[in-house]
Design goal:
Blueprint: H1 2-12, H2 22-35, H3 39-50, E1 70-75, E2 78-90, H4 101-110, E3 118-129, E4 132-136, H5 151-157, E5 167-169, H6 175-178, E6 194-198, H7 199-207, H8 215-230, E7 235-238, E8 248-252, E9 261-267, E10 270-274, H9 282-285, H10 299-316, E11 319-321, E12 330-336, E13 339-344
Parallel strand pairs: 4-5, 5-6, 6-7, 10-11
Antiparallel strand pairs: 1-2, 2-3, 3-4, 8-9, 9-10, 11-12, 12-13
The structure holds zinc ion.
Zinc ion (ZN) binds near residues 176, 177, 323 and 324.
Length: about 350
């Protein structure tokens, strides 16, 4: 019956009132698929007749990663890369602690996301400038399970060993940012690097009493104090407006943690605002910056910071990158009343340095 209707409307009356409906379009597509030889059949017969088939069990281990795990781009003369450290699935309520489930589900539905769990990615960033390699955050670390802790393996795929890193900037001392500072043996991963953290973070974590708070807080204190001890001989603290290197300025973004910082990086006419953990799930928090995140230690202050950062980025049309923005984690914050939306960049395949 559907085929008859399609033929009738197409052949006998081409007027707009008989334009192809979604149903007839699908019917036509199905019929076409049923009668058109699929490319895979052609390829198979070619392979069988002329060349040996590729074995299904390759002799070499197959790299199962999507792409190379890093995305190169340039800021003026500075060569940069966003590095994917990995991904975890999390319940959506993690990013909307103060919101009823029906309202969360509506936003997830609008953004084509699953309402049981959403992918949360972890990124780090590399900047190569004037002969020094600067790593911003270090990810979860080498022993953090499959699909995670990939910063060092990806650096090696880019031709860099951990000892080639001259500066490591830590935006804050959560495990997904400091975990990579230790190797398999619990020693310094980046043996030649100066560690840069905010003065406020240094004060907070160095004074925190081990064993206080819940199990998660106790783990955070232990991890932070291990970092401060291990890297104490080559450690620099910074405050707002200080420069890590010339043109890489510290921006206080307090709320997520005490002393949480971002970076304003400028080279020539290019500029980037690295917002670290100001946002964890762009498709929920950009339309709703006031939704509270479980990981934000001071939730009210984090909401204020988020609103301030989104407003600035949108008004100034800044290129933005962040630790938990979907890879390659580069894009813009676009005003969409009453709040904002995330506008990813278009992937550039062949960046060149001028
Ligand atoms: Zn984080």
């Amino acid at each position: 019956m559907s085929n008859t209707n399609t033929t009738k409307s197409t052949n006998n009356n081409p007027s707009p009132s008989n334009s192809i409906t979604r149903r007839t379009a699908l019917t036509t597509m199905t019929a076409t698929l049923a009668t058109t030889p699929l490319l895979i059949n052609t390829a198979k017969s070619f392979a069988q007749s002329t060349i040996p088939a590729t074995p299904l069990s390759p002799s070499k281990p197959v790299d199962t990663l999507q792409g190379a795990g890093f995305y190169r781009f340039n800021l003026g003369t500075m060569q940069c890369a966003i590095i994917s450290d990995g991904q975890n699935m999390m319940p959506p309520s993690t990013f909307a602690q103060n919101i009823p489930k029906t309202q969360i589900d509506q936003v997830l539905h609008e953004n084509f996301l699953n309402n049981n769990e959403v992918p949360t990615q972890i990124n780090t960033m590399l900047c190569c400038d004037e002969g020094i390699n600067i790593l911003i955050d270090t990810g979860l670390g080498l022993d953090s399970g499959p699909g995670n802790g990939l910063t060092v393996p990806h650096l090696e795929r880019m031709g860099l060993k951990p000892e080639d890193i001259g500066i490591v900037v830590i935006t804050h001392m959560h495990g997904d940012h400091i975990g990579g500072l230790f190797d398999h043996n619990g020693q310094k991963t980046f043996s030649n690097a100066e560690l840069v953290i905010s003065q406020q973070a240094f004060d907070y974590w160095s004074k925190a009493k081990p064993g206080t708070g819940d199990a998660r807080m106790q783990g955070l204190i232990t991890g932070a104090q291990e970092v401060l001890e291990k890297y104490k001989d080559n450690l620099r603290t910074v405050v707002g407006d200080d420069e890590v290197v010339q043109g890489m300025k510290v921006v206080p973004l307090f709320g997520h943690t005490p002393g949480h910082i971002g970076l304003q990086i400028a080279r020539g006419n290019d500029q980037l605002f690295y917002i670290a953990d100001t946002v964890h799930m762009v498709y929920m928090q950009m339309p709703h910056p006031d939704w509270q995140v479980a990981f934000d230690m001071n939730k009210e202050q984090a909401v204020m910071t988020r609103k301030r950062v989104f407003a600035l980025a949108a008004e100034e049309r800044l290129l933005v990158a962040g630790s938990h923005i979907p890879f390659p984690a580069l894009g813009h914050v676009r005003k969409q009343a009453p709040a904002y939306m995330w506008q990813p960049i278009i992937w550039i395949w062949n960046p060149t340095v001028e």
